[in-house]
Amino acid sequence: MLIRFVSFAGSAIAFIKLQELITGRPITYPGQQVINGIVGVIIVALVFAILVTSSTALLWSCSVSPWCSGSSSCSPSAGGRARAHPLLNSFTGVAVAASGFTLNNNLLIVAGTLVGASACSSRA
Predict the structure, then answer these.
(1) Quick one: which of 10, 19, 73, 113 has the fewest CB in 10 Å?
(2) 6-86-64 Cα angle (round to 5)
(3) pLDDT for the residue numbered 84
């Protein structure tokens, strides 16, 4: 779930930049890497809290942090280049393959592996 939310949010920012709905220039602000690190620590803490408590409310609240992480990690990339897009696609492939292992579904494992591998090799 975390990988999918980060990938979707990053892909949405890349799409918005490529469609020129917002500026294509890199969007940066002071302390951006520190804030990304803090969001990452929050995500890890939420995952451990969910594993310990099995709380559905925590699971739903955990969906906000990856959106912030995905959008803030892709906003510094320039609009025309979208260098983060292959990384986001490979994340999605890994998530699909992991779902295949969880569900014992060979088709998902193969499809996720192919998506992840093709995304890594599509660098421009």
Answers:
(1) 19
(2) 5
(3) 65
